[in-house]
Amino acid sequence: MSRTPPNLLTATQEALEAVRSTSPLVQCITNSVVVGFTANALLAVGAAPAMVDVPDEASMFAGVASGLLINLGTCREEQRAAALEAAPAAIAAGTPWVLDPVAVGVLPVRTPLAHHLRDLGPSIVRGNASEILALAELGAGGRGVDSTSSVNDAITAAQLVARVTGGAVAVSGATDLVTDGVSVVRLSNGHPVLTKMTGGGCALGALMAAFAAVTPDSLTAAVTATSVYTVAADLAAERSALPGSFAVALLDALSEVSVDDLAARAVFA
Amino acid sequence: MSRTPPNLLTATQEALEAVRSTSPLVQCITNSVVVGFTANALLAVGAAPAMVDVPDEASMFAGVASGLLINLGTCREEQRAAALEAAPAAIAAGTPWVLDPVAVGVLPVRTPLAHHLRDLGPSIVRGNASEILALAELGAGGRGVDSTSSVNDAITAAQLVARVTGGAVAVSGATDLVTDGVSVVRLSNGHPVLTKMTGGGCALGALMAAFAAVTPDSLTAAVTATSVYTVAADLAAERSALPGSFAVALLDALSEVSVDDLAARAVFA
Amino acid sequence: MSRTPPNLLTATQEALEAVRSTSPLVQCITNSVVVGFTANALLAVGAAPAMVDVPDEASMFAGVASGLLINLGTCREEQRAAALEAAPAAIAAGTPWVLDPVAVGVLPVRTPLAHHLRDLGPSIVRGNASEILALAELGAGGRGVDSTSSVNDAITAAQLVARVTGGAVAVSGATDLVTDGVSVVRLSNGHPVLTKMTGGGCALGALMAAFAAVTPDSLTAAVTATSVYTVAADLAAERSALPGSFAVALLDALSEVSVDDLAARAVFA
Lengths: 269, 269, 269
Prior knowledge:
Three copies of one chain form a homotrimer. By secondary structure, chain A is α/β, with parallel strands linked by helices. Chain A has a single domain (about 5-265), classed as Ribokinase (UDP-N-acetylmuramoyl-L-alanine:D-glutamate ligase), CATH 3.40.1190.20. Chain A is built from eleven helices and eight strands. Chain A has helices spanning about 5-20, 35-45, 60, 75-95, 110-120, 130-135, 155-165, 200-210, 220-240, 245-255, 260-265, and strands spanning about 25-30, 50, 65-70, 95-100, 125-130, 170, 175-180, 185. Chain A has an eight-stranded mixed sheet, with helices on both faces. In chain A, β6 and β7 (about 175-180) form a beta hairpin. Chain A is globular, with a radius of gyration of 16 Å. Chains in contact: A-B, A-C, B-C. The interface of A and B includes residues 36, 103, 107, 143 and 198 of A. Chains A, B, C: This is Hydroxyethylthiazole kinase. Chains A, B, C: Catalyzes the phosphorylation of the hydroxyl group of 4-methyl-5-beta-hydroxyethylthiazole (THZ). Chains A, B, C: It catalyses: 5-(2-hydroxyethyl)-4-methylthiazole + ATP = 4-methyl-5-(2-phosphooxyethyl)-thiazole + ADP + H(+). Chains A, B, C: Pathway: Cofactor biosynthesis; thiamine diphosphate biosynthesis; 4-methyl-5-(2-phosphoethyl)-thiazole from 5-(2-hydroxyethyl)-4-methylthiazole: step 1/1. Chains A, B, C: Belongs to the Thz kinase family.
C-alpha cells in the first residue's frame, strides 16, 4: 500500500474545502429513481448539479462541465445515446468522468454498454462487489441492484478493471474499498440504514465526479467522496436510523460535515 | 363474505413476517413522479426494488423477479413496450403481477393499453374508484389522477374486473375495498393526508407486488399490503399530518410497523 | 409602477383562498429531477397535479386542465413533442400556461424549442436572470442551471420578453422580479437555502400555473405564486436552514401558509 492514513486524511480535507470553495459543475446522466436525491446530495456537499442527459446536449455539456457521472440504472435509449456521446467528449476535454454500472451482469442492454464504456477508460468506476465482478467479466452480477458477493471477493476484479481503465475503482459495501490497480484503500465508516434507502450508492458516484473535479488523482478523489459521504452517513444515523428520516438527515449532514469531522471520524484501513 | 377478520389478521401478520425474512425482489415499471418514493417504500417494508423498465431487459427480469408492478402513470413509449413484454414473461414464469391503471378513462394512450393488460389477467389490479369504473368500461375516469367517484360506487365494477382477470381488485379511498369477484373485504385505516402527497396509491401498488410474492392468494396479498400500508400511515400521521413530514414519517413507519401494530390497529369490515 | 403593495397583498390573499377552495388541476410537462417534488408542492398548496406528458395525451389534457406548466429541464424527445402539442391546445382552450426555459442559452436542443414556445405567447415565463437574458436573446445563458447574472441585469430582458409574449415574466433570485412589460414588482422574501435544494425554482413555476388558473391577470398570478412560495420558504427556514429538512419543511409550510402570514411577512418593493 503506497499511501498512509495521514496523507489520505489531509487530501480528503483539502478536497472537501476545494469542492465548497469552487462548487464544481457536475453533469449527471443517471437513473430516474435517484435523480432528484442525487442532485440534492451534490448541492448539499457544495457542488452544482446539471442533469443534462439529452443527445446533442450531453456532449456539448461534457466539454464545459467540471465532472461527469454516467449511471446505467434505468438506461433508456436517449440516455444510452447521451452516454455514448458524453464520454468521448469528456475525454477530449479532460473532464473527469465516473461510470456506475448499476445491475450489470446478464441484463442485455446495460451489460454491453457498460463494457464499452469501461473500455473508454473512466476516471473512476463505482459499484457493489457483484457489479465490479461482472464488469471484470469474472461474475454474472448480483440480484437486481443488490450485491450477492462481498467486497473482499471483488478485490482482484477491482484491480483488474483499474488496470484496464487506468483509473480508480471503488467497491461499496459494509467496508468500502478503493484501488487504482496497485494501492488498495479500505474505509470503514457508514451505517446499514444506507441500504434501506434508494440511491445511496448512486449519489456516492455523483460525489466522486465532484471530487474528481478538484482532485487530479482519481484514487484520492474516490477515497475522498467515500469518506465524506460515509462520515456524513454516520452523523445522520445518530439523528435517525429509520430510512425516511435518515435520508433527510443525510442531506443535512452532507451540508454540515466538516474537515474536523473527517479528522475525528474517518476510518481508513 | 368468505373470510373473517381473525383469519385475515393472521394472514397479514404472516405475510409481513415473510416479506421481512425473504426480501422479495420487486420489479417496477412505474411513473417518473413516484419512482423514488416507491423504491424507498419497498425498501422500508423489507422488500428489494428493481426499477428495470427498459425493453429487452424488462421481460428477462420479469422471469427472475419475485413480483412485478406495472403502473401507467407516465407511460412513455419505452415503458409501454417494457410493460407489453414483461406481463407475458411474468405470466410464463409464474411471477405475480400488479396493474395500476393510473388515470385510465379517456386518455388515448394509456386507456387501450390498460384494457389490453387487464385482459392478460394481472394477479391484482389497484386503482381509485374512477379508475376501476373506467377499467370495467362502466365509467369515463376521474379528474386527472383523482377519483370523482366513491369506493362504494365501484363495487360492481371491481367484482366485474376481478372475474375477468381471475385475480383480486383493490379500490383505494377513505375506506379501501378488496375483492376477488366473490369475497369483499373493507379496510378502514389510513389518513386524509395520504391524498396530500404524491405517490401514496402508487407505492401501495408496489407493496401489493411484494406481498403477492409471499402470499399465493391474491386477495390476501392485496388485503395485507393495504393493511400494512394504511396502519403505517396511521402511525405516521400521529407524528405529523403535514404533507412533507408525513411522507418521511410514512417511510419510517413502514420500516417499523409490526405484527402487534396490525393486531392493535387494523380495522377490517 | 401601476400597482401598489396593498392591492397586491389583497390580490395574493384572494388567489391563495381560491386555489385552496377550487383545487385547480395543473398539468405538468417537467423534468425528471424535480417531478416528484413539484407534484408534492402543488398538492401541499392546495392544487391537483397531473403529470401528463405523453404525446397524444398531452394536448387532450391541456384542453381540460386548469393550468399547464412546460419546463425544459430534461427535455427528452417525447416531452418535446408533448410540449409542442400541449401549448397550442392550451391556447385554443384558454388554459393559462407557464414556460420555464431551464438552462436555455447555448444548449442546442432546448434553446430553439424555448424560443419557439416563447413566440407562442405563454401566460407566464419564469426563469433566473441568465435564462431570461438568453430567452430575450440578450445573453448566452448561465452556468448549467445556475444564473451568472443578477436579477437587476435582467429587467430590460424581462420587459422585452413580456412585450413579445403579451404575458408576465418572473425573474427569480435573491430578490424576485415580476413584470408584464410595463409594471415591475419586486419581492424580497425567501431564503438562501432555496438554492441548496433542487427544484426550488421549478416548483415555483408549477405554482404559477396553479395561481394563473384562478387569477385572470398573469402579473398578479406570478406575483402571488412568488409571494406564497417565498413566504412559505421563510416559515420553513425558521424550522431548519439545512437543505434536507428544509425541503420537507417547505412542503409543510406550503400547506400551512395563511392569508395572515402573507399580511405579516410579504415584502413587495
